Amino acid sequence: MEIITSKDNTRIKNAKKLYKKKNRISSYLIEGQHLYEEALKSGANVKQIFVTEKFADIPDAILVSDEVMKFLSDAETPQGIIAEVSLEPASTKPEQLSKLLILENVQDPGNVGTMIRTADAAGFDGVILTAGSADSYSPKVLRTMQGSHFHLPIFLENDVQNLYQRLKNQGITVIATTLSETSVDYRTISQPEKFALIMGNEGAGITPETSVTADILAHINMPGQAESLNVAVAAGIMIFSLTD
Fold first, then answer.
1. Could you tell me which residues come within 8 angstroms of residue 94 by beta carbon, excluding any fewer than 6 positions away?
2. What is the pLDDT of residues 108-129, one digit of tens each?
3. Which end of the chain is more exposed for a tag (fewer CB within 10 A), N or C?
4. Is the pTM value of this prediction over 0.90?
5. Rounded CA gap, 50 and 12, in Å?
6. C-beta of residue 201 within 8 angstroms of C-beta of residue 105
7. Pairwise CA distance, residues 92 & 74, whole Å
8. 5 vs 12, 152, 183, 198, CA distance in Å?
C-alpha cells in the first residue's frame, strides 16, 4: 500500500480545510475509531479514510505517515484514523417531530456536544441550533457528541421566532428555561405529548423575545448557594424530567 508522507499532498491539504466551517459545503471530518464505527452503523456516506499503520487493514483506506496524521488531526493525541463524511440534509422538518431540544445561542462547543448527546440518550427526535450557537460539526462538538449526530437530526435555524411559531402551529408546546417572576418549577410541568425545550446562552439565557413567545417558562430550584447551573447540567435535568 502506498503511503502519503508529505503534508503538502493535495488530498491532505483539501481534507484539512474541512475543519473550517466556510469550507464545509458537502462533507466534514470525524476522528477516531468510535466515530468511524458509528458512521458505518448509521449508513453514512464515508467518502475517504486516512489511517496510520494501526488501521491499515481497513478496506480502501489511505495510508499516511504519523507526521501527516498529526498534521491532519485536530486532537492533541491523534488516534490514527480520520474519515471524511458526506453532509446529508435531514429527511424531515423540525415541526414534524415530537421531542425537540433547541439550543439558543449556546456558544461553548463542549456544552453543545454534551446537550446533543444527552438529548440522544433520552430519546429526543431532533436538536435545533440557532445561528448564534457553536458549529455542530466542529471537532470539539463532534468529539463531545460521540456520534449522536448520526442518531438524530440536527437543524440550523436563523429565524427562531418564525421557528417557534411553526412549532406552535403544529401543537408543539414550547418550553423555555429561565429565572423570572413568571417561571414555574420544572417539576410542576405535566409532560406534553409534543414539546420543544429551549436552553439559552451560557451568560445571557434566552432572549427577551423568546421569553414572550414560549408557552411555558420553567426554572430549576437551587436550595444551595451557587448562583447558577452549567447550561449542559441544567439541560440534562430538564431533558430527563420531560421524558420520564
1. 100, 126, 128, 155, 157, 163, 166, 167, 196
2. 999 999 999 999 999 999 999 9
3. C
4. yes
5. 9
6. yes
7. 32
8. 10, 37, 59, 47
